[in-house]
Amino acid sequence: MSELPNLIPALPEIFLALAGMALLMLGVFRKRDATRQVGHLALAAFAAAAVLALTFGGPRQVTFNGLFITDAFAVFAKLMVFGASAATLILALKWMEQENAARFEFPVLVVFAVLGMCAMISANDFLSLYMGLETQSLALYLIAAYQRDATRSTEAGLKYFVLGALASGLFLYGASLIYGFTGTTNFDSLAQGFEGAETVSPGVVVGLVFIICALAFKVSAVPFHMWTPDVYEGAPTPVTAFFSVAPKVAALALFLRVMSAPFGDLLAQWQQVIVAISVASMMLGGFAAIVQTNIKRLMAYSSIGHVGYALVGLAVGSAEGIGGVLVYMTIYLFMNVGTFAVILSMRANGRLVEGINDLSGLSKNRPVMAAALAVMMFSMAGIPPFAGFFGKFFIFKAAVDAGLIPLAVVGVLTSVVAAFYYLRIVKIIYFDEAGDQFEPMTAQARLVLGIASVFVAVFFLFPLPQIVLAADTAAKALFGG
Amino acid sequence: MTAFVFYLFAALAIASGAMVVTARNPVHSVLFLILTFFNVAGLFILLGAEFVAMIMVIVYVGAVAVLFLFVVMMLDIHAVTLREGFTKILPVGAVVALVLFVELALVFGTWLMAPDLDAVRGAPTPAVGELSNTQAIGAVLYTDYVYLFQLAGIVLLVGMIGSIMLTLRARVGVKRQNPRTQANRPLEDCIEVKKVATGKGV
After folding, report:
1. What's this model's pTM, rounded to 2 decimal places?
2. Which residues of B touch A199 (CB under 8 A)?
3. In a domain, A219, yes or no
4. For residue A9, which of A70, A83, A359, A395 is within the disulfide window of CB 3.0 to 4.6 Å?
């Protein structure tokens, strides 16, 4: 007889799994449409899981035979995921009611996707990493294809599925190479084995490169970004909003943990790869976005660029860099949620619009919405005193401190390029001829946009020190501090 | 003898694997795939991994390949039109494959188990004589790896929800069987007793 594993560290995951199944039952057995109830209960489940993560997650604990880990880093990343998912789910529920596309499976799948993300964040072994990744991805493919009667939605789902399966294949191949050359898949054992290692067998390096490729696909970094614009454009807009925040944060957290925990001592082997991916992402995110006319596509390229900046912090390979990435992702999350609250409200003459030119003259028709969107765009461009500036500041500071000055220079230059298209949107909003008036924003969208824009606008006054401190603690947890 | 059986299975597996991609008829491809699975199962038995071998036959041949066969038969696939661009991309593909092969050969040629890692190896399987495969897997699957087992269950659940969500359509006007009304139907509604005069018919 073996004893029961310690379940306390995994309480948020266990709770989410049970909640997901209970919500599924509720949705199936209710006679009339239960989307609204299921959605609200899913929001409550995220809140409860966040409380559980905060209460039981704190110090580093490993359980389930070393497969599962929780520490300050995991708690920080999970809170980001819960917040992002809850915000986008609030927007999505209202939007689906308006579009008459409400189905109770949507919130249920979001709950399971979040469960997968938590499993990814808390993975301490390649096996648990893979299972978490698949749980998440499968749920994401489904919600991308959720509007099954819209060709673009099903196309987005199919494309995402095929390329995602390819990435999973790459990951498995890399993990099997590493297992073959080291004899273990556990992160702690790998870290122990590589500690102070003089030579690394080429098999490990090849496996590591495969894993980097797969993870770069999941965070949509260049050159594994091809699916992003199509999926972002094709998927229903609330799904795009969800895709652009929660899975991105989770995959990036996973990326940080895999690179820092087991392979931290192999920095010299993987740093150049991350630098290359990061530079390519920043460049493509800057230049390719200029020619876009669809705002969802624009946001896709913008997110590719942002991932490039975040990877600068990873390339540094120190607690300072990781802390910078966490601050950056927190800010990114608020900016993106706020921007998508506006995009979801782009509804003129009873019809949804997605063109950037449809925003023209928004300041005359909807001044508050226009001001909030302008704040978001200034922040994304990295103009002080808005939050986006501080995100970039911490990342570039870490890069300069670590002697990666060329990387920081490329980052600054590409953010100038990116500033062009962000500011172009501001120009369209404020100085172009007024177009069709948008319908008023829903209360939900107003709430989300309000919180996000206040956060972005006064970031330097109030939450900056707290968030930096929390991110710092979280980053140190990865380095055994 | 073992060597002979190994080469037999290996050669057949490779040959039928090649046939899978070159066969003109997609149904033949699937049948060759089944042959490949059988040969690979044979190789697993030679390795002493009888559990994996049986899983190979039951799951891959019994379920996956049959599913493929259904898909291939239901979809109207023209293998010839699919292969139109084949000769055009063949040189590029061949170069990529060659590069990858050389890289892998270099990697495996310098096989070097990191010596520092001897202390941290993952759970080694017990010797074949001590415990059968199935017992060895059973001993860890629900204990050491219970977390993964449960997550796998969640993945399957999500797959199930998804396939229903994407395909099930609630249609109106469908006549459904209702056992309760059937059973509760009063006798008078179902049977009518008629007097039939002899020799007249109904």
Report:
1. 0.90
2. 112
3. no
4. A70
